[in-house]
Every structure is written in structure tokens, then in C-alpha cells.
Amino acid sequence: MRQISPFVVLLTCAVALAGCGGSSGDSSTSATSATPACTPQAAITLGGPFDGAANGRALGFSFQVSVPMELSALGAFEVVDPNHRDSITLMPDPIPGITTPIEVGLYDSMGLVASGTVQATDPLIDGYRYVTIPSVMLQPGETYTILGNFHGSEAFFAWQNTPDFTYRPSVTFTAMQSVPSSPTLPAMPPGNPQSWSDQYLDVNFLACEL
């Protein structure tokens, strides 16, 4: 059998930067790559009944986070209510769910920073359909807004003064956003000039805490 020179073994290890059972000397890179990715969690968890309404509005909410987060998906609620009745005529007006694309935007204090369009075929998770977007870092101390443009859509829904929803502990609701919709998302959060009093939780997001 051919003998391999110890010098050749050492030279091979040095070139490969793998000290034959040792480390390459870049421990930070190894530690980072070995860290498992977290599973993104929703900002809002829902429960209980809802009231649907056939109307086109831009709806959402402003919020702050208590820890850094990596936001990776924006969501719109999938309203399905076969027993819905028109609020004025009280005639049957079934709501079939998302059938037209819904644009959802994320804002910081400078304006729109990311957006995505939710389709009827996007993944459904606990009542919301989500579209994946390039990751956005959320930082404590900044106020963010998430807004869904329900322009031309069949419905939005309201959680009418009920405790049957929760924000995750690291997300704090700060203000509601509600205006008549237009064909595109506004450049800045529109506020709530008509002083709608209920929290319309039509939009959601998925994020990892860092």
C-alpha cells in the first residue's frame, strides 16, 4: 500500500482550512449557519364570530414592537360567510372569500416600505391568506402601520368590541387605520379621519422575533 507523507496531509488540511478535526478559525460564521431559522408567527390570533360588510375600504392598524423582528409575509383575512345579510336591506348577501387580489402594505414613519398582493390561492393560515415578501426588519421605538386595500373587494370584516382576539405579547396596537379605498395603496398611512371605533383586523403579518 502506498504511504502518504505527513507533510502532504498537513498541507491538504491547511488548504481546506479544516484542521483535521479542528476548526477553520471562523467560529462566528459556523455558529451563524448552525442557528436554525425560526417559524414566523402571526401578529394577531383570532377567535369568536365576526361581522362582515360588503364595501371597499383601506383598513389596517398601527403598532409597535418590543423586540426586534424579521417580518416575512403580509396577510389579508379570508372572509367566508354564506349566511351574511346586507346590513341595510337585510337580504341574503353571501360572502365567498377572497376572489379579487388584495394589496397589503407595510409603512414606517417615512412611508411605504414594502407591499404584496394577496391572491385567493395563497396559503391560508388561521383565517388569513399570506403573501411572502422580502424580509423587513422591525425595531422597537418605531411605529409601523399595516394596511389592506380592499378596493373593489367583496367584503371586509370587523371584530366588534369583543375580546376574542389577541395581539402577540411583543406587538402593541397603537391606532386604527380606516379610509375609503382607492385603486392603489396611499404613500403614507391614511389615519382614521372618520373615527371608526372598532378594530378592523382584516390584515396581519408573520414575523420572527430576533
Highlighted features:
2 domains, 210 residues, single chain, mainly beta
Structure description:
The chain is mostly beta strands and 210 residues long. The chain has helices at 6-16, 27-34; strands spanning 41-42, 44-46, 51-53, 57-65, 69-77, 102-108, 111-118, 124-125, 128-138, 144-149, 156-158, 165-167, 171-180, 203-209. The chain has two domains: 1-35, no CATH class; 41-209, Jelly Rolls (Sandwich). The chain is 9% helix and 40% strand. Strand 6 and strand 7 form a beta hairpin.
Quick summary of this structure?
With 210 residues, this protein is mainly beta. It has helices at residues 6-16, 27-34, and strands at 41-42, 44-46, 51-53, 57-65, 69-77, 102-108, 111-118, 124-125, 128-138, 144-149, 156-158, 165-167, 171-180, 203-209. It is globular, with a radius of gyration of 24 Å.
Following the backbone from N to C, one meets helices and strands in this order, namely HHEEEEEEEEEEEEEE
In the predicted model, the low-confidence regions spanning at least 5 consecutive residues are: 1-36
Q: Architecture of the largest domain in CATH?
A: Sandwich
Helix content: under 10%
- Percentage of residues in strands: 35-45%
Number of distinct helices? 2
The SS-based structural class is: mainly beta
